[in-house]
Amino acid sequence: MGISLNRTTIGTTIKEYTLMALGMFLYSFGWICCILPANAAGGGATGLSLILYHIAGGAISIGTMVLIINAILLIIAGFVVGWNFGIKTIYCVVVMSIIMHFLQVWFTTPDGWVAQIITARDALTVPNGTIVDLFNLQNRLLSAILGGICSGIGVAMCFQQGGSTGGSDIVVMIVNKFYTISYGKFIRLTDGVIISSALFLPDVGIDGVIYGFVMVAVFSYTVDMILSGNQQSSQIFIVSKDYKAMADAINNEAKRGATVIDAMGWYSKDNSKIVMCVCRKRDLAMVLKIVRNVDPEAFITIGSVMGVYGKGFEALNKV
Fold it and tell me: Domain spans of the chain?
C-alpha cells in the first residue's frame, strides 16, 4: 500500500512539473517568438524585462533579465513576508528564464537554427529568422495576438498545477504586507504603467504600446477561459465526513481559510458539516486535489463569486 501510494505521489509530481515546464515553454514562445518580433510592449516582470532589453540594446537576453528581476523580487519577498513561497514558483521562474534564453538564440538571430532552416528552404525573405517570418505573419497585430494566446495558455497550465510565474504575484505579496489591494486592480495598474513606459522607446513607439494593451487583453481572456470562467474567485462547498481533516488540509496545504458550517441532510435527517472555502481561481485546482486526497467521496459544489471582501482579498474600504 505504501509503495503504491509513493508511486502515485511520484507520478503526480512528475506530471505536475512536466505540465508546468510545457506551460513555461508556451509562455516563453509567445513572448520571444511573437511579441518580441512584433515590437509590442507587455506587462509584468517579462514586460519590464523586454523594456530593459531594448534599453540595453540587446546586450543581455530577455531570459536573463527575467531571472534577475524575479530573483531580486524573491529575495525582497523573503525578507518582507517570509520564505514561504513554494518551490514551484522558483521552478517556473528558472525554467521560464532558461527557455526564453535559448528560444531567443534559436529564433531571433541570423545564426539560429530556425533561421538557417527557413533560409535553406528559400521560401521567405528572412531578416531575423523570427516566428513572424516562419508563418509569414507580416501583420504585427496578428503576431501580438498570437503571443497573447500562447502566453495565456502557458500561464493557465502553470496555475492549474499550483505554480506561478513570479513577477507581479510576488510584488502583490510584498504590497499586501503593508496595504490591502485587490490582485486584479494591482495587475491592471502595474501592467498599464509598464506598457505605457514603452512610449519612450524608439523601437516600440505608440503602435507597439497599443499592440501591448491588445496582447494583455488577449492574454487575460485566454487565462480566464482556460481556468473556467472570468471571475476572480471561486466559492467551494464540501460535504464530507472527514470535515476536520479537510479543513486542516485546506489551511495547511493550500494556505487558504476554511469555514465549517452546521447542516442537515433533509432526506436522511442526519446532522452533517459543510466546509466552505473561498479562493482565487488560480488556486481552485490545488484545493480540488486536496479534497480528492482527503476524501474521494466528498460532495462538492463550486460557484463563481463576483466579489470577495476581507482579509486576503479586497478591502471593503477600497471599493
Answer: 2-226, 233-318
β-strands 270-280, 259-265 pairing: antiparallel
- The class (CATH top level) of 233-318 is alpha beta
pLDDT, mean of residues 51-63: 84
DSSP states of 62-105: HHHHHHHHHHHHHHHHHHHH-S-S-HHHHHHHHHHHHHHHHHHH
Average pLDDT over residues 161-187: 74
Residue 108 CA to residue 43 CA, distance in Å, equals: 21
Query: 99: Cβ–Cβ under 8 A, 6 or more apart, which residues?
Result: 24, 25, 28, 63
Beta strands, E only, 207-307: 233-239, 259-265, 270-280, 299-305
How does residue 141 score in pLDDT terms, banded at 50, 70 and 90?
confident
Q: Per-residue pLDDT tens for 100-119?
A: 988 888 776 555 555 454 44
Rg (CA), the chain: 22
Residue 175: half-sphere exposure toward Cβ, Cα within 13 Å: 17
CB 166 within 8 A of CB 70: yes
